[in-house]
Structure formats: structure tokens, C-alpha cells
Amino acid sequence: MLGSPLERRQDITLIKAVARAFRWRRMLESGRFGTINELAAAEKINSSYVSRVLRLTLLAPDIVGAILEGRQAQGMTLPGLMEPFPVEWVCQHLATASS
Question: Are 67 and 15 in contact (CB under 8 A)?
């Protein structure tokens, strides 16, 4: 469940990762880089890491908003989101409600 407005727990690491994911997606969509491997090489990081971070762009919009506002579900961390998660938004909400 997403945190209430009074519960602000901004996770700067998570916020930066979400921002990076959307920036990288824009770079790929604009054609600046043709592949994840090219992007990873330009950023000087592992392509596996880029792939896992890019998955954050598949989070439901209200979950992304909650992360940016510090209202993410308790226990929602970057390491946890680096693990496979459902791409269906309804399933994401069910998963965050049970954590």
C-alpha cells in the first residue's frame, strides 16, 4: 500500500534510479543510442544493470509518483525493485500491498 501523505520517507537512491531509468529510456527512444549495450558503454556501466534499472520505467505511474514524493510502500527499495516484478500495474499494486 502506498504511504499516506503524512509519511514522507524519500529514498534518494531510489529516486535517482527512477530518474536515471526514464532518462535512459528517452535516450534509447530518441535514437541517441541504438542498444542497451551502446548506452551502457557510454555510461561506463554494466549492460545488465542498465537493463534492470530500465525496468523501473514499467512501474505504474502512481507508484512512480509515490516514490518521487516519498510515499512509496514501506519496504520498497531499489534492491527489491531490481528483482523481477510484474509488469501489469494491478499485479504491482497487489505485490506492494503484500510487502
Answer: yes
Q: List the grid coordinates of 86.
A: 510484474
Residues 6 or more apart whose CB falls under 8 angstroms from that of 75 comprise 99
User: Could you report the per-residue pLDDT of 54-81, keeping only the tens digit for each?
Assistant: 999 999 999 999 999 999 988 899 999 9
Q: Are 68 and 16 in contact (CB under 8 A)?
A: no
In sequence order, what DSSP letters do the residues of 52-88 get, joined into one string?
Answer: HHHGGGGS-HHHHHHHHHT-PPTT--HHHHTS---SS
Write the single-letter amino acid at 2. Answer: L
Q: What is the pTM of this model?
A: 0.85
pLDDT surpasses 50 at 89: yes
